[in-house]
Amino acid sequence: MVTRRSLLGAALATTGAGLFTGAALTPLLAAGGARAAGAAPAAPAVEPFRVPLPLPPVLAPLSTSGGTDTYAITLRRTRKEILPGLQTEVLTYNGHFPGPTIRARSGRPVVVRHRNALDMPASVHLHGASVPPESDGAPMDTFAPGTTRTYTYPNRQPHASLWYHDHAHHMESEHVYRGLSGSYLLTDGTEQALPLPSGAYDIPIALRDARFDEAGQLVYVMDDALGRTTLLANGKPYPYLEVAARKYRFRLLNSSNLRFFRLRLADGGEITQIGSDGGLLPRPHTTDALWLSPAERADVVIDFSRYPVGTQLVLENTVGPGTPEQTGHVLRFDVVRTASDPSRVPSVLRTLPPLPAATGARTVELRMDEDGGAAPKGYIDGKVYDPDRVDTVVRHGSSEIWTITNPNTVMPHNFHLHLVQFRVLERNGQAPDPSESGLKDTVRLLPGETVKVQATFDTYRGTYVYHCHLLDHSAMGMMAQLRIN
Known about the structure:
mainly beta, 6-stranded mixed sheet, 6% helix, globular, disordered N terminus
């Protein structure tokens, strides 16, 4: 009998602790679970770098009157060509895979009217946004097929690369996997005053993985980390992007359910990280590798002026599951022309306000069954999610330090807190890496790790959730409720 535990063991034995090994590839820990997806025939092989990277359309508002931008989106099922020559059934916002991009501005409200043309309930969550509870897209606050739900986003927070996705409990994992996600890029005067790459040189890229059958249909089985070995960028497998020999800003989003990415350029060249979940970092961070757990974002600048025209440069992923041939390359940049470049990356990007004095402290444990059972569950502080139970109560205006621990020996997790952006204080007792020096709403926890964060609850009152954003894990119970009084 093939069990989840035996599959994990096979992964560890065959891929170097579940990840790649080699001179340019770093072995670490198993990045995900491993429930079998049965005997589904394999998808046709995909030759990399044969299709261009698509850019999701920017959604135009229906109205801009009264100082508010109003949008209309329809959730509907459609078919798209993902693998070459095959039509795949997907769930979409306005028929796009991934969904259209909304560009918003701090201080200017946005209203989105979602019409549900699916045959199942839905709930739309604007991930990373500070919104009142009735517009948060709570797991149980769904709207039925054939109905419309209006969400209001006040945009009273600073700039940030946010994203929206389905959050209907017990269905969120499959709904997002089948396509219900899109980018929401919030800007403000602080960001716009900087001479960063902009316009055609500011490109959102949503990364994820998938499993396809021989007919090109998405195969979904809960906790199927080992089977999802086709990587997609903006909905296409291993695409290429033609670039000029100048600086580009890329807004990277890990929209996978389970997969962690560790990204690097194939030549080991510099990547300048300028932002994370909650907007720009205080200072740019130069690195040769970048971690992204599910739902995390990173804004980066890559300067292609250091490469001659004709260069083809692969963006690699150096962690599994999967072999280097399957999941070791993400996309390719093709330098095809020269171009003038007035942009630059300043040495100071923003000034974050000082952290207030902490008024309380809590501990949170994220844990998942690792006993090889057929129906594993996920837990926060030993409990599975119960929408009728409030797990944590905080006082409005308080600022708390939360110590979050992953005691699992195999399973990684991450932690996402609705409503607020927090600051990472420590990782495993040490100061955080510069990549975590900004505002965050999602933070990774590899097996055995502990992360300490500080969050201030001074915006809206009400009930919100916090959970592991490996969405298969939250759908299996790893979610809890917070009430702000």
